[in-house]
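Journal club prep, shared notes

We agreed each person brings one worked example of a sequence with its structure written out as tokens. Mine is Probable dual-specificity RNA methyltransferase RlmN. I'm keeping it raw so we can talk through how to read the token line rather than staring at a rendered picture. Sequence first:
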Amino acid sequence: MTKIDLLSLRIDEIEDLLEKMGEKKFRGKQIFQWVNKGIKQFDDMTNIGKTLRENLQQNTFITHIKVEKKMVSKIDGTTKYLFILEDKNVIEAVVMKYKHGLTACISSQVGCTMGCSFCASTIGGLVRNLRAGEMMDQILQMQQDLGERISNIVLMGSGEPLHNYKEVIKFLEIVNSEEGLNIGNRHITLSTCGLVPEIRDLADLEIPINLAISLHAPNDEIRQKMMPIAKKYTIKDLMGACKYYLQKTNRRLTFEYALVKEVNDEEVHAKQLGQLLKGLLCYVNLIPVNIVTKGKFQKPREDQVKRFQKVLKMQGVEATIRREMGADINAACGQLRNNYLSKEMEK
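Then the structure, token by token:
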């Protein structure tokens, strides 16, 4: 029998598992509470009998990822973690400090298959999806290390969350549970490069999370050069899914727009983007592109970024400029993992 990861299960799933094991169903909530507190050893579950603990030991396990490297920004306190998974794969996550609390940016996959040309996460392609428990343990390990509660989560680290749809939805259910971390859906943001069918599926669930769309271009010609997914789903397809999401949830959308010098940062591009988004319940998050090793894109000048923002606002589209966090520790997703893998290959 293949052992089952308890940290990847909802309460009802643990209860069903216990019934199959011939155990009492009501213990499911207790076990869920223990693993969501970060307990890794069955013997530490002090209100669970010895026989049940031994049964759990034989049939289940609790995901336990470990910190391989930790970097703390001297500029703003941003903390970046490189985690080693139980199969020796590596992922990374970041905790950012704001006035409203700690925000964790976590990974949903080992690597990424989307191939966006400006993103470090996609270098080397996709290795595998993460289980819900491996996403959960990123939060638990960072909370334990920092000694503070994480109040906001961003699924914007390595990987495309909607490409790992089933486990990501499971993660959202677990992390939102009142018996666990109880992080409200409105404090969770999921970022996608635009998987149209999955956006529609997510809309049908009507989970009140925040959805961020990685748009990065005002037209198909530019977007297809930057993002391979744009060859499968046009901007028209994507905007149709976004409007459906708004119709089902009435939750304001965020459109992520990585500004790349002399690619998508001109005034004409801002005007096209404004026309595309005008009238939608949304805002644009402008992101001066990170300089990626092996990448070919350059960051635009600060005045060019502000001009782009001004043109959008003149068309009635709200736009903000993302403040760079952890600049001195390469806090953008994918960079730490790629540096680690490069050094491992050199050994």
